[in-house]
Amino acid sequence: MYDGGPPPWDIGRPQPSFVELADQGLLAGRVLDVGCGTGEHALMAAARGTDATGVDAVPKAIGLAQRKARDRGLTTRFLVWDALRLADLGEQFDTVLDSGLFHIFSDEDRARFVASLGAGGHYYLLCFSDRQPGTMGPRRVSQSEIREAFGPPDWRVDAIDAATMDTNLEPIRGWRASITRI
Questions:
Q1: Is residue 77 within a helix (H) or strand (E), and if so which, with residue range?
Q2: Which alpha helices (H) appear in 8-120, and where do they start and end?
Q3: At 114, is the secondary structure helix, strand, or coil?
Q4: What is the DSSP letter of 7?
Q5: Residue 5: what pLDDT?
């Protein structure tokens, strides 16, 4: 998708919902931007003084992210990596940002993804909402699906709020969830 210009989700800046989190001081410690694309959220975290890592399965996206980091003079680690194998990194993160990854997974892969997130920390999710009309784009996600995926005893859903996901096409109705690993 990166060969024909930026895909719809690559807006060249962080999502406003995640900028709000950063402005509130919620991006703390070691930050992982999972499904980072060209790295805007990891770069935002690094610019605010965190130890930031971005992972994505698309080598071209990671190459673009690395170039942005160099151009901006930021120390940010970017890796080509499978989000379903995060545990294989052998690392723990205090904060995980997910902008548009969770909603692409099948039910089976969602469970694998959630299990791969590791222990402790905060997970912030921005995904397509079931409030989004039409059928174009990724699968819609309901609040109950988020709560089922991140249920006790390992997780606590702190909040699920209506949010907007900016795209290169039009804004999308989404959910921003704040979730804590217990």
A1: strand 77-80
A2: 16-23, 40-47, 59-72, 107-116
A3: helix
A4: -
A5: 75
If pLDDT is split at 50, 70 and 90, which confidence band does 137 have?
Answer: confident
Q: Tell me the C-alpha distance between 120 and 180, whole Å.
A: 7
Calculate the CA 27 to chain-centre distance. 13
Confidence of residue 136 (pLDDT cuts 50, 70, 90): confident
User: With contact defined as beta carbons under 8 Å apart, do 16 and 164 qualify?
Assistant: yes
Q: Which two tokens stand for residue 87?
A: 């545990």
Instruction: Find residue 55's DSSP bridge partners.
Output: 34, 79
Whether the Cβ atoms of residue 3 and residue 61 lie closer than 8 Å to each other: no
pLDDT for 85-113, tens place per residue?
A: 999 999 999 999 999 999 999 999 999 99
CB 165 within 8 A of CB 147: no
- In whole angstroms, give the CA distance from residue 115 to residue 154: 10
pTM for this predicted structure: 0.96
Other residues' Cβ atoms within 10 Å of the Cβ of residue 116? 16
Instruction: State both tokens at 79.
Output: 């890796």
Rounded to whole angstroms, the Cα distance separating 138 from 76 reads 28
